[in-house]
Amino acid sequence: LPLGPEGTAALLPGGVAAFGEGLTVNLDEVRLFLALREAAHHRLFAHVPWLRTRLLGAVEDYARGIKVDAAALRAAMPQIDPSNPEALNEALSGAALFQPEDTAEQKAALVRLETVLALVEGWVATVVEDAAQDRLPQATALAEAIRRRRATGGPAERTFATLVGLELRPRRLREAAAIWRGLTQERGVAGRDAVWTHPDLLPTADDFDDPDGFVRGRPELDISD
Asked: What is the CA radius of gyration of the chain?
């Protein structure tokens, strides 16, 4: 999610080191690979002005249906020991403070959010693969490490899954990447990126089930001529 200032890229040294742990890859190469991913994200959001609003808008659409049980919160507070983080987490999660209304609107918002996040991640993976394949010897291994991290879920993924039921399913990420790869092969970089010119041109969740069909079925995106 684009939570930082526009045009400001950042890598956290601790995060870079943690990602590289257990990998037989030089830390400088790990850092460069992650910097490529960061640069690709910024390039996408800089050239698709509506994308940030659409992503955060889907989060807001879902959040409107979340209800806070004030009575449960008041009941839980006397039992919470502020000096014990584990007990605090247990009390808050067990009190069912957040009770999302499982409305059709919220379900639709989650589908939109998962779909666009998968498309962003798939596009970044495709662009970084092309940029790194002849430059970083361990690019394939690092890309696989990213996929494994997505599959197991980091703190952000687990938080979204717990609070709102959002999970970035690895299959969705693979399908999104397959769409961008197919568009690159069929229509070139310009034809691929033309999909981002308007939200109505983006693949839908249904298109993920047939990536090849989406690639072959969108002749209006062929701008190679």
From this structure: 20
